[in-house]
Amino acid sequence: MGGEVLFQMWESFRQSLIAAHLFYVKQARQRLLSQFEDIEGEADKAAEVWLVNHSHRFDPDVHVPGEFEERAFDAGIEFYQLLTEMRDRTLLSVVSGMYHEWDKHFRQWLVNEIKHWHRGDVVAFKVWTVDLGKLTELLASVGWDPRGKDYFDKLDACRLVVNVYKHGNGNSLSELKEKYPDYLSDPASNLKGPFGGLEFLDHNHLYVSDQQLQEFADAIVEFWKDVPSTIFDSADITAPVWFDKARAKDVEAAQESKGGRG
Hints:
Strand content: under 5%
Strand order of the largest sheet: 1-2
Number of domains: 1
Shape: elongated
Low-confidence stretches: none
């Protein structure tokens, strides 16, 4: 099978993937994230509204001067904190949706291309279920290794961020701490003592800034741009063990099916 096409990325398909991704990012900014552009101003208004709604209850015989103003200030602080938390969760939701769409398109493209030279449900199932590391291992075996590219660390970090956001504490959190601690916000980072450091952080400290969102978005664009137009088969290709095992099961199933019909 020397010279056979293993994977092909048509330019029109590449551009459609990039366009859909850019549309998602733009619309998420305009329709979702833009609502959090003036959190401080909205908190001030919330304090004013609280004071207007409660000032009639002021009783000089019971309340001290300035007490309601202080309560209004506290209401504004609470509003600010809650809205900030909502913004942070919205950012993570946008990142999660963006990553999952890229991941599904990536795996579907691999499955579609593999079908041109291999038939079988086991390989297709494996491509849909193995982790990103195994998929890139497969690509590296056929001559294209995205793991060495600048954008890959961002994709890898995005994967871990999304996993922590979805599942909470676990292996992904440990890996995120080890490889990309910048996505964990440490409120005690400036304090010295027994309760400082990454070991005390959990999924509640997960944080993505607007700039980091853009970095993730740019990495996806760079990934699609970097996919070779054509990847050919060659004699020196050694497929990963997980792929060879899945392919062997498909071959065995096909032979059994033929034998049953005979």
